[in-house]
Amino acid sequence: QVQLVESGGGLVQTGGSLRLSCAASGRTFSSYTMGWFRQAPGKEREFVAALSWTGGRTRYTDSVKGRFTISRDNAKTTVFLQMNSLKPEDTAAYYCAASRMVVPGTARSYEYWGQGTQVTVSS
Length: 123
Hints:
Elements (H helix, E strand, L loop, with lengths): L2 E5 L2 E4 L4 E8 L7 E7 L6 E6 L6 E3 L7 E6 L4 E6 L8 E8 L12 E2 L3 E6 L1
Parallel strand pairs: 2-11
Antiparallel strand pairs: 1-3, 3-8, 4-5, 4-9, 5-6, 7-8, 9-10, 9-11
């Protein structure tokens, strides 16, 4: 079992930055791919980024490449999403998730989910 708790969301202006954190509990955290998804009102949940358990493989959706960076600290069982150059279209609830697969990009491939943290980017 893996339990996930996100934090770090908030209100930021266009062009600003936020760093999301996801604290994981569970003895096998380091063996999971960790991913971030987001969901805006009225839209489906969208893949954002994923990082393999070794940190050697990453995957990003095209709209965040060059702006967002996913990282993890296995010792502290935490995964991060550094978000720079934020845009109003990045506004959404952000969720972290854990998967036994290698950097999958689909929500159905993730077994465990956090409750989400809201990110709002004002124009």
